[in-house]
Every structure is written in C-alpha cells, then in structure tokens.
Amino acid sequence: MNNILNHIGIENYIFLSVILFCIGVFGVLYRRNAIIVFMSIEIMLNAVNLLFVAFSTYHQDAQGQVFVFFSMAVAAAEVAVGLAILVSIFRNLGSITIDNLKNLKG
Amino acid sequence: MEMNTNIALVLVLAPFLGFLINVFFGKSLGKSLSGIIGTLSVVVSFIATVYFFSGIAAQPEGIRITLFDWIQISNFKVDFGFQLDQLSILWLLFVTGIGSLIHLYSISYMHDDENMHKFFAYLNLFIFFMITLVIGSNLLVMFIGWEGVGLCSYLLIGFWHKNQEFNDAAKKAFIMNRIGDLGLLVGIFILGSLFSTVDFTTLKTAITTAPDYNDFWFSVAALTLFIGACGKSAQIPLYTWLPDAMAGPTPVSALIHAATMVTAGIFMITRLNFLFDLVPSVQSIIAIVGAVTALVAATIGLVQNDIKKVLAYSTVSQLGLMFLALGLGAYEVAVFHVITHAFFKACLFLGSGSVIHALHGEQDMRNMGGLKKAMPITFVTMLIASLAISGVPLFSGFFSKDEILLVAFHHNIPLWVVASVASIMTAFYMFRLMFLTFFQEFRGTSAQKHHLHESPSLITIPLIVLAILATIGGLISLPGNSWLNGYLTPILPKLANAEHHLGTTEYILMAIAVVGGLVGIGIAYAKYIKQNTVPTEDAAISGFSKMLYNKYYVDECYDAIFVKPINFLSRFFRDTIETGLSALVFGFGKVTNEISYQGKKIQNGSIGLYLFVFVLGLCAIVSYLFLAQ
C-alpha cells in the first residue's frame, strides 16, 4: 500500500502539530502586534488541520480531508474580515498594538 | 305562567331601573323629577306585589319562576329563580308599601341636599336588593340580596360622607355585617354539601324526609345561619352597628334600619323554619339571645338623649323580642310583630325626622320640648305609634307583643319575665321621648323657636298613613281569630292545629302586660311632666346610669378585645414581618447586583487578558477531555 505513513510515522505528525499549536498559543499570549496575534491564531488553526489530515490518512477515511477544506474556506473568510477590521483600526488609531484597543469596550 | 314571569320581572326590575335612571341622569333631571322617578319605581313594585297578593289565595302552593340555570356542577344545581309564596309576598307588601311612603317622604326631607339624586338612586337600589332577598327561590339568590342590602346600608349610612364620624359608622355597619355574612355563607355551604341543593323547596323535602340526618352538622348549619341573622338583625353580640347607623339620613333609618333590612334575619329563619324546628338546642340559643338583647337594648334606651338613638335601641330591643318568638318556634308571632313593628317604628322614625327637620338638624332631646303646639300632626302620629309600641290595648303593638309574651309564658317563665321587663322599659323610654320632645317648654335657641313649623304635607301624609296602619295593623292577627295564621299555614304547617286558646291565664297575662306598659308610661309621666326633669348634662351623669348612657362600654370592650389587638397585629406584621420579607427579597437583588458589579471589572477591555483567559479555557477543556478518558 502506497501510504506516506509507512515512511514517516503518525507520531511525528502529532508532535509537529502539537509544536505548531504551542507556537501559536505562545504567539497569541506574548505578542502585542495584532497582525502577529492573528498569524499565531492561523498557525493554531493549521496545526489542527494538519492533525486532521494525518488522522484521515491513518484511518483510510476521506472525511477528515474533506472537512479540512471546509475549515480552510472558513479560515480564509475569517482572515478577510479580520484583516479588514485591522485596517480600519490602523486608520483610526495609527497603530495595531492590541493594548490600544481597550476603547472597544462598551 | 308567562304573564306571572313578566310581572315578577317588573316587580324586581322597576326599582333597579329607577336606580339606573337616577344614577346616570339624576343630576340633569333635577331634584323633584329624580325624587318622583325614584318613588314611582317603588310604587310600580308595590302594585305588582298587590297583584300577586290578590292571586295567592287561589294558588296556595305559591308561584315558582325559574329564569335560568345559574350554576351546575355534577349533581349540584342552582337555578336563578323566584319564589312567590305567602311569606315572600307578605314581606314584599310592606317592603314596597312602606318603601313607597318613605320615598315620598324623602322627596321633601332631602330636598335641600345637593346629592338628592344619589340618595334616591341608593334607596332604589336598596329596594331592588331587598326584593331579591325576599323573592329568591334558593339560598344563593337570597344571598345576593342579603349582600346587596348590606352594601346599600353602608352607602346610605355614610351618605353625608364629609363627616368622618359618619364614615366610621358606615364602615362599622359593613364590617359587623360581614361577620354575620360569613356565618350565613358557612351555613349555606353546609346545607349545600349535605343535600346537594340550596333550593328552599327541595331543601324542605330533603330535610323533613331525611331519616338519618347528621345531627351535629344540622346544628352547626342552624347555628351559623343564626349568626348571619344576628349580624343583619342586630342581635347580641353583633348589634352595636345599628345605633351607630343612625348617622344616615332619617328616612334611611326608618326604611333600612327599622322596617325592612333588619328584619331579613327573621325572614331567613322563618323561611328555614323546617330546619330550625329540628334543632332545639339552637332554638333555645336563639330565644335566649333574643330575650337578652331585648333587655340590654331596652336598658340602654332608658338614658339616651339623642332622639334617634332612643329609637335605634328600641329597634334592637324589639328585634330581640322577635328572635325570642322565633326561638320558641312561634314563627307566625315573630312575623306578626315584624309587620306591626314596621308600621309603628317607621312612623316613629319619620316623626323624629320631621322634628329634626323642623329644628334644623337638632337631635338632642334636651334641646327640644313643647313642640306639641307647633307640630300637631307629627305629635299625634308619633303619639299613636308610641302607644302602639308600648302595648296599649287596641293598638297594633298590643296584639303582637302580647302574643310574644304569651308564647314565652307557655314555654319558659324566666324568658317571659325578661321580655316583660323589656316591654315595661319600652313604654317608659318611648314616653320619656314623647314628653321630652313635645311637652313642657321649648328648650332650644330662640332662633330655632322662631322657625318652628309643621312639616310640609309630603312629610305628614306618610306619617298619617303609617299612624293609621300602626293603629289597625293588629287586626290581621286577632287572638282567637287570626287571618295571618291562616294565611301562613302553607309555609308553617305546624300552625294548623295551634289555635290560640283564650283562657283565664291568657287574660291575666294580657292584663299584666297592659298594667306593666301603663306603669312604664306612668313613671315617665311622673318624672318628666310632674317633676319636670330634664336629663342632666353628659358630664353630670354618674353611677349605673352613666354605664347605661355609655352603652355598657360594649364598644370600648370590642375595641379593647378585637380592634386594638388586630391593629397591633397589623402593625407587627407591617413593621416586622413585612420588613423582614422585603429585606430578603431586596437582598437577592442586591447580591446579584454586587456580583455583576465585581464581574464587570474583569471585562476591562484588555485584549491580552481576554486571550489569556481564552487559552486558559482551552487548556482546561483539553485537560478535562484527557482526564475524562
């Protein structure tokens, strides 16, 4: 059976995915720049997508891969909206440091 | 039958129509027209009553009219219907008859009052409810009327509502009546649950044929019904509202608080005679309460100085005598006394109204006197009524009171003694009233003396008619040859063989009663004519008469026993319990408020913090999922 998992074990994908996710988490927690935070969130998202695909292949079930398509489409839409918000914040405040966004509180 | 239904509806609804007209258009109709409409509507009822009265001889079983099914719950069914039999027609006759006269009287008496149309509206409403009370074919329809007359009594006592004392008197009457009404309701409930019916005819069959009736619940039902009668007919311990009810205009006192409404209790007990006959223990309670009320009220009446108060206590006392007769099972005698009493007491009240009218509102007999010359018609009619109530032979009161005493003598000598003493006192205080009001010199101000005048004919005509009735009213039940007893036989079957035997004992008793009455009159004559005494000022009264003058301090006792503790309890509930409860309820609000106020502080707008909490939550979920496995 021509399966990539025969060459690289499933556990490697899991480790990679966990490392990516943790990078995303720490990026979210430590960085103040909104775009970086945003990118970190995307990293977390893609870590999960990677895991999805890996397990999908592992179980010989295409459902997981199909689901990843959906998740990527949603993420693309989210990125579009998120970036638009960031642009308008930058226009108003002149910076995109998240500490400056306290005024968004009602 | 169709025609009877229509006439019965006219009989009931005419006063109600009068009420509607007066209440909605009375002000624009003007005083005279409003009074005439009010009077006419009652006269129409009276004519309808006379129609039924003339037909009753042909239909001894009475006329029953069912208008519609009112309440129907499984096997319990109540019709809204009327029952026109001997008893209700008799009551209707004097309710509408005397009612018409008093309406006529009020046209003149109330003419100076700005709210005259309201007065007539209330009077008409009263007549409507009184007719409903009397004519109802079951206890519930009667109860509607029973409550309605109480309401009208309240409205009319407090008619001059700008005076706070009058309002208090009205409230007192209403509350006292409520206590009695509760008793009546409980009685109706018990009868309803025992027999699944509250209809008079069905009840009568059910009760008289019930072989294994529950003795205990029978007695309780009779007792609670009697409590209801006590409230409405002003018997001990619920009598204190009636003297205070004199706050209302005098025609009201005459109509409601002497002739009609206060006899509702006697009507109800006579209606349910088949029930009361089965419970001798309750009957003796009724007799004793009646006799004691007669005596107590008479003693208080001895020293009162307000002309209407004397008459009010006299009414309570006479009602006591009627209850004595009821308790001894002599329903027809009680009914007889109700009728004669309605005549002479209405006459007395209207006469006192005429005097008060002439003196511009003066009610204290110490400021009257010598009115004989100025007001001859009022004087003569009141004299006749006083002779009647004192039991002077040939006047109506003589026959009815004598029969009560006779019955009492045959059943229970102590009760006879009590009733006789009360009668002697009645003669005394009635003639005390007459002598103080009409004889000797005038004791009022000279301005009043200048304006002394006989009342207009609208006032004197009802007085004359009532005085004539008070004289000849006794003819309906002469000893030995009683039309009334024969008339009431279908209602009171026991009477048929209970003809009065006029023997030596009876004549002796009669003589004792007459002598007693004359002695009472004589004492009054000696004291107030010969010695020319005038009752002393309030402050100078002392000893036992002070106690009498203050009505045995019964009001003060009730105040101390019931009113004060209830007020105290209310204040306790308001200040302690309710404060505690609201502190608890408000406490919940305050705690919630405080929690959300503190929670608000976390939501400070720092995105970094939000993200931190988000990651924390994520970690928590993940670790939970691991732990769950």
Short structural summary:
The complex is a heterodimer of chains A (106) and B (629). Chain A is mostly helical and 106 residues long.
Please state the structural category of chain A: mainly alpha
Strand content of chain B: under 5%
Largest sheet of chain A: none
In DSSP terms (H or I, runs of 4 or more residues), the helix count of chain A works out at 3
Strands of chain B, count: 4
Would you give the CATH topology of chain A? Helix Hairpins
Oligomer: heterodimer
Query: Roughly what is the average pLDDT of chain B, rounded to an integer?
Result: 86
Strand order of the largest sheet of chain B: 1-2
| Major beta-sheet overview of chain B | 2 strands, antiparallel
First and last CA, distance of chain A:
59 Å
Overview of the molecule:
Chain A: It is a multi-pass membrane protein. Chain A: The chain crosses the membrane at residues 12-30, 35-55, 67-90. The complex is a heterodimer of chains A (106) and B (629). Chain A is mainly α and 106 residues long. Chain A has a single domain, classed as Orthogonal Bundle (Helix Hairpins). Chain A is built from three helices and no strands. Chain A has helices at residues 10-30, 34-58, 63-93. The radius of gyration of chain A is 18 Å and the shape is elongated. Chain A starts with 9 loop residues before the first helix and ends in a 13-residue tail after the last helix. In chain A, 12% of the residues are buried. Chain B is mostly helical. Among the domains of chain B are: 322-549, no CATH class; 557-628, no CATH class. A two-stranded antiparallel ribbon of chain B has the order 1-2. In chain B, helix 2 (31-55) runs parallel beside helix 4 (116-135), helix 13 packs antiparallel against helix 14 and helix 14 (307-327) crosses helix 18 (396-411). The mean pLDDT of chain B is 86.
